[in-house]
Design brief:
- The protein has 18 helices and six strands.
- It has 590 residues and is α+β, with helices and mostly antiparallel strands.
- The strands form two sheets. The chain has a four-stranded antiparallel beta sheet with strand order 1-2-3-4. Strands 5-6 form a two-stranded parallel sheet.
- A hairpin with a 4-residue loop joins strand 1 and strand 2.
- Helix 5 packs across helix 6.
- It is globular and about 80 Å long.
- The N and C termini lie far apart (85 Å).
- The N terminus is likely disordered.
């Protein structure tokens, strides 16, 4: 039987080289999976370590995240200037991984210095960090940026560098870049789950970081071996005239520098901002049901990343030309808007869904993962699809793949910084959940309209669908998901009653429910305290009295007491009169 070989493989030695090098590309993908795995191990471990320095306030967490992502953006931007001149991208990728591991070893030393500097700068300052204003925020941002800049910048440069090696023909721009992004994100899912459920609980912080360093070292060795036979980039094949596999856009020939595709960059920035706005919003909302443990956070983050990885992989084969990729970007934004709106509208059913799933599963974490996946994964599929489409719009030939990937990642990451900080610190406290969701959906639809420009032949369907969806959202905005806000990770006890107060702040969502003269305070779904009007029967709350009585029973001679957490003041009311002085330590007691 004759061997089935593509026609061009018989005629052109360059195409034959491509076919022979495919196993080597598969090994590169395995290395990039491990890169994502190590990167998320570091992110979760560093977030824990920096919490010891700066605290666990939302201000500290958000500024640390901004510094982390700022390093990624800077690394991608730097890579955009280097990729076209690279001769051995795989070797450089291996060196970047080695640099990440070495820099990770230096992070704990830098954190010790930041701790000493923090104590010296804010020695004697009055008030909690959240209340101290701009000075603390700037310190968090500058310190964490200085500590994390080198390893995160090296991380941000890896995908553009590998795109230079992976893309040999114009037809591979969307598919190869999307595949690299998907594999790396899938590794990040493994790192999130591995660090959250196994490494951090069992090994601790320092040993977990050593695991990441070992993975980086393994990737370096593998990349160095691969680079020995990869050859310089100039020896790799380029697009062959007449090759039927080349499915580029005719516009590429007229615009070899890709200047006409730069319009996609501000859209990518806005898309990144909206995507992280959704992540912040859903993390806060699902915290009412799943709790604030590291396991709950890991399942939510893993669900979001899994959707992004799958969306990028599914969209990559369709990013065959700039015009088709622009239309794909428009449909992705439309899908993200519709699915996010639908998930928010159905959020009230999540407590019942969680209870139903938990009855059939022994491990509560599996029920948490199922609810997080149902809520976050559908819209994340569309969010993940935007990257390969955006890269294909910007890149007009195979040598543009690396710089285009770098620019798209840099702009998208900058948008993510704006979206995460802006939503957590300004939009949610000012607008609340429903209006923030509406703003995000309208922005997605506006991006769909902008990407589906009239010069595209198929713009009509995407454009009219986006316009109709925007009209529906503006006329029928989503309601507040009261059932979800009343839910609690500790159960549904005392979840009924009239809503006497509801407020969304920077650090918490506060709900006060009133039933027959008894007011119950809930913070992020957790019961904090209850206060009864005079003559009303509290119907419980005995444990609150025991909180006050137990210390006096243990130390009856004590005449002073320290209470950590004011709550609703109920514990203070129950402290025995023998105690002469009471000090309260609480962020709300000022």
């Amino acid at each position: 039987m004759a061997e089935l070989v593509p026609v061009n493989a018989r005629r052109d030695p360059n195409v034959e080289k491509v076919l022979k090098r495919e196993p080597r590309f598969a090994l590169v993908l395995i290395c990039f999976f491990l890169s994502g795995f190590a990167a998320l191990i570091y992110q979760m471990a560093w977030a824990r370590q920096l919490a010891f320095v700066f605290g666990t306030s939302d201000l500290a967490v958000a500024t640390v995240l901004a510094a982390y992502m700022g390093g990624l953006a800077a690394g991608a931007a730097a890579a955009a200037r280097l990729t076209r001149r690279l001769r051995r991208p795989v070797m450089l990728y291996g060196l970047l991984e080695l640099g990440i591991g070495l820099a990770a070893l230096a992070v704990p030393i830098a954190m010790e210095g930041a701790t000493a500097l923090y104590v010296e700068v804010f020695r004697g300052s009055v008030g909690q960090p959240q209340a101290s204003g701009l000075s603390h925020a700037l310190f968090y941002l500058v310190s964490s940026a200085a500590i994390l800049f080198i390893p995160t910048a090296l991380m941000g440069a890896t995908l553009p560098i590998l795109a230079r090696y992976a893309v040999r023909r114009e037809s591979q721009i969307g598919s190869r870049v999307g595949l690299l992004y998907a594999i790396n994100t899938l590794g990040a899912v493994g790192g999130t789950l591995g660090a959250g459920f196994a490494l951090l609980p069992r090994l601790g912080l320092q040993a977990t970081i050593w695991v990441g360093v070992a993975v980086n070292g393994l990737v370096f060795l593998a990349a160095a071996l691969l680079a020995r036979g990869a050859g310089p980039v100039e020896d790799l094949p380029v697009a062959v005239a007449g090759d039927p596999a080349v499915a580029g856009d005719p516009a590429a020939a007229r615009d070899p520098a890709g200047r006409s595709g730069r319009w996609i960059l501000p859209l990518v920035l806005a898309s990144g901002a909206v995507s992280f706005s959704y992540e912040v919003l859903w993390t806060r909302l699902l915290g009412h049901l799943l709790g604030g443990s590291v396991y709950a956070f890991a399942t939510m983050l893993a669900s979001f990343l899994t959707g992004i990885a799958a969306g990028s992989a599914l969209a990559s084969p369709f990013a065959t030309g700039p015009s088709r990729a622009a239309l794909g970007f428009a449909w992705s934004q439309l899908g993200a808007a519709i699915l996010s709106f639908g998930a928010f509208a159905a959020a009230g059913a999540l407590p019942e869904l969680f209870a139903a799933i938990a009855k059939h599963l022994e491990a509560p974490v599996l029920a948490q993962a199922a609810v997080a996946a149902v809520t976050l994964l559908p819209a994340a599929l569309c969010i993940g699809a935007t990257l390969p489409f955006a890269v294909r719009v910007l890149a007009r030939r195979e040598t543009d793949a690396g710089p285009a990937s770098a620019r798209v990642i840099a702009w998208n990451t900058l948008g993510a910084i704006v979206g995460s900080i802006g939503t957590g610190f300004f939009l949610l406290p000012a607008l609340g959940y429903s209006l923030v969701l509406t703003l995000g959906v309208v922005t997605n639809l506006a991006l769909a309209l902008a990407a589906g420009r009239p010069r595209l032949r198929s713009w009509g369907r995407a454009g009219w669908a986006a316009a109709a969806a925007m009209l529906v959202v503006l006329l029928l905005p989503p309601e507040v998901p009261w059932k979800l806000l009343r839910a609690s990770a500790l159960g549904s006890q005392h979840s009924r009653g009239r809503v006497a107060y509801y407020g969304v702040g920077r650090g918490a969502t506060v709900l006060v429910l009133e039933t027959e003269g008894v007011f119950r305070l809930r913070t992020n779904g957790l019961p904090e305290a209850q206060v009864a009007r005079k003559g009303a029967h509290s119907g419980g709350g005995t444990f609150l009295q025991w909180f006050a009585a137990a210390p006096s029973l243990a130390r009856p001679e004590a005449r002073s007491m320290l209470v950590v957490g004011l709550g609703g003041g109920v514990v203070l009311e129950a402290i025995p009169s023998l105690v002469e002085s009471i000090d309260v330590v609480s962020s709300s007691a000022r």
